[in-house]
């Protein structure tokens, strides 16, 4: 009986899996390198954006400082001789960086309505980092 059962059973194939083929490893490394390269690029872009956002934030603070000083002067909150808004340009250190600012004034619609624009440039750059404008009534500019 033992002899018959051995004869009727199908032959056993010995299949051994030793590992991945060279092609499979190469494809896996290619996919991994693409994922790592794109993630490094994203991290680099994130770091660059943080630097630009910080620079823009500080430049906006400098511009708002100039415009608020002008507003305070026009509202009579300070004596006119003590403020720096009589100057049309100057520099300010904000966040450890030297910022150059210019305050421009032009007539707007209305009898005493003027547009005050503060433009801020970082160091020796030519392109403004910030340009903010506000419309104010200036009684002292009557003609």
In short:
The chain is an alpha+beta fold.
Q: What do you see in this structure?
A:
Helices cover 42% and strands 24% of the residues. With 143 residues, it is an alpha+beta fold. A 4-stranded antiparallel beta sheet has the order 1-2-3-4, covered by helices on one side. The protein has a single domain (20-141), classed as GSPII I/J protein-like (Pantoate--beta-alanine Ligase, Chain: A,domain 2, 2-Layer Sandwich). It has helices at 2-8, 22-74, and strands at 89-94, 97-107, 113-122, 130-137. The protein has 2 helices and 4 strands. The radius of gyration is 36 Å and the shape is rod-shaped. The model has no long low-confidence stretch (mean pLDDT 83). Strand 3 and strand 4 form a beta hairpin.
């Amino acid at each position: 009986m033992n002899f018959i059962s051995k004869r009727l059973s199908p032959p056993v194939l010995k299949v051994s899996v030793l590992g991945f083929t060279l092609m499979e490893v190469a494809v896996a490394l290619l996919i991994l390198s693409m994922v790592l390269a794109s993630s490094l690029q994203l991290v680099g872009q994130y770091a660059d954006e943080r630097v630009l956002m910080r620079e823009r934030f500080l430049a906006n603070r400098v511009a708002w400082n100039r415009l608020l000083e002008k507003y305070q002067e026009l509202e009579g909150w300070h004596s006119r001789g003590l403020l720096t808004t009589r100057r049309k340009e100057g520099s300010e250190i904000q966040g450890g960086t030297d910022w150059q600012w210019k305050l421009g004034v032009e007539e707007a619609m209305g009898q005493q309505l003027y547009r005050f624009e503060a433009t801020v440039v970082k160091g020796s750059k030519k392109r403004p980092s910030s340009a903010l404008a506000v419309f104010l009534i200036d009684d002292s500019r009557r003609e």
